[in-house]
Amino acid sequence: MVGKRKDDKVEVMKGVEAENKILEYLAEQNRPYNATDLAANLRVIKKPEVTRCLTSLHESQKIEMKLFGKQQIFCCKQSGSTSTSDEELQKMKTDLLNAKEELKALNDKKTALELQLTRLKSGPTTAQIPSVKEALEIQADGLREQLRVLKEANANEELKRQAEPKSKEEIEKLDADLEKCKAMWLTRKKIGLQVINTLTENIPDEEVRACFTSQLGIEFDGPALTQIGFDMISASKNLPGNRSRQLSSRKRTLSGTVR
What we know:
By secondary structure, this protein is mainly alpha-helical.
């Protein structure tokens, strides 16, 4: 392998040739550069000559120059750029607003169709309809039998005695179980809402954040269940033995003992 001889020198451009080379390079790359980057990329033009050429090209208004701090950035002039009138800008803004409204309407329609599709997919298929129909008919027969027994119980004292009402203790136990289930439902509802808020609070897109729950098929409680939750919260605040009041009345000393 023949090594590079020391007397081989790289031809260095200067003057008008260097200016034309820099102008051609800036137009070809179509991006901003500083003098250091241009000298490193071109190699055939030394940095002092690059600086001089850039200054000359800028003074002759062949290239643009912007100051960023103490650094000068150069780029080629953008040809064919025309100014936009106020009427055109206003029309663009109007078109943009109309496009946003149309996009929102389409997104709402898409969300509704996705929910409808989810419901259809969750339902029985055509092949499953006969078995589902049979099960519903059996259930309907059972309900009809219960209705017949209740009607006969109202007309027959003997059947009334067989269908005795529940005792007071059983009713109280059922009421206690119902209140326990309500409290459990309210707790889990709060946890679910906290999870949803945590997941959506960092979503930057407002439309995606608003459609988050509907896209997942999450349905919120109706007015009746919501009112039950409000009633339970109000009732728990008015209880004389409220646990939160008992906890707030406790005081801890510096040693950690509870008074």
